[in-house]
Amino acid sequence: MIKDQKNKYIVNCKNEYEPLQQVIVAPPDHMKITTIINETQSHYANENIDIQKAMEQHQIFVKTLESNGVNVISLPTNPSLNEQVFSRDIGFTIHDQLFAANMDRAIRKKETAILKKWLDKEQISYTPMPNSSIEGGDVIINNEKVWVGLSQRTEQKAIDHLKNQFPDLDITAIPLREDILHLDCVFNILEGNKALIYRDGIDNNSYQLLKKSYTLIEINEEEQFTMATNVLSIGNKKVISLPENKRVNDKLRELGYHILEVPFSEIIKSGGSFRCCTLPFQRSEKRNTLKRVYKNS
Question: Is 39 or 203 the better-scoring residue by pLDDT?
Answer without folding.
Answer: 203
